[in-house]
């Protein structure tokens, strides 16, 4: 592995952590974070994938984006979640895309169950208070009742780190 590859991998990990914290704190994944993941990807693939593997990663990311966009249009996913999951798919490549999607679903399901429990909701509120949550306009700002909002970017970022980092740690 080259130094450039390792630096890109470290930046990927840092950006995923920031994306998870921001989504937990504000229920928003800032576009510059996703854009930074896309800009860093060529430095990462130089040491991780062949040309065919890079094309496969682009294809998988495109499919994930299209399916995610359909889910977004139906209100099942947030736009930031779709973009983050698509960017993460680039980084894991075609061979690990199924693992990324599976781990994202498992972590996201566990997170949703935890946050729907009274203890989990209180823990989340405490964590958001510690992180200085910035309230958005609308129901979140007024405290109006509505469906629970799950910071799915936390699950996506966690899954991306779980799937991407271990092969590089050996």
Provide a descriptive summary of the structure in words.
The termini are close together. The chain has one domain (3-168). The protein contains 7 helices and no strands. The protein has 170 residues and is an all-alpha fold. Mean pLDDT is 88; it is low at 137-144. Helix content is 78%, strand content 0%.
Question: What is the element layout, followed by pairings?
Answer:
Layout: H1 3-26, H2 31-48, H3 51-73, H4 79-116, H5 118-130, H6 139-142, H7 152-164
Broad structural category: mainly alpha
Number of helices: 7
Write down the secondary-structure element order.
HHHHHHH
Mean pLDDT: 88
Features:
mainly alpha; 0% strand; globular
């Amino acid at each position: 592995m080259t130094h450039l590859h390792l630096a890109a991998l470290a930046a990927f990990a840092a950006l995923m952590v920031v994306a998870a914290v921001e989504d937990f704190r504000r229920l928003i994944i800032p576009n510059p974070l996703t854009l930074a993941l896309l800009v860093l990807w060529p430095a990462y693939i130089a040491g991780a994938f062949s040309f065919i593997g890079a094309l496969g990663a682009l294809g998988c990311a495109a499919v994930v984006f299209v399916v995610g966009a359909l889910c977004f249009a139906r209100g099942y996913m947030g736009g930031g979640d779709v973009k983050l999951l698509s960017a993460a798919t680039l980084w894991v490549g075609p061979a690990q895309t199924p693992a990324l999607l599976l781990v994202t679903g498992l972590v996201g399901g566990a997170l949703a169950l935890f946050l729907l429990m009274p203890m989990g909701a209180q823990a989340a509120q405490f964590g958001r208070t510690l992180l200085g949550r910035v309230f958005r306009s609308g129901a979140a700002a007024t405290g109006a009742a509505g469906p629970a909002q799950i910071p799915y970017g936390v699950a996506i970022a966690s899954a991306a780190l779980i799937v991407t980092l271990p092969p590089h740690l050996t």
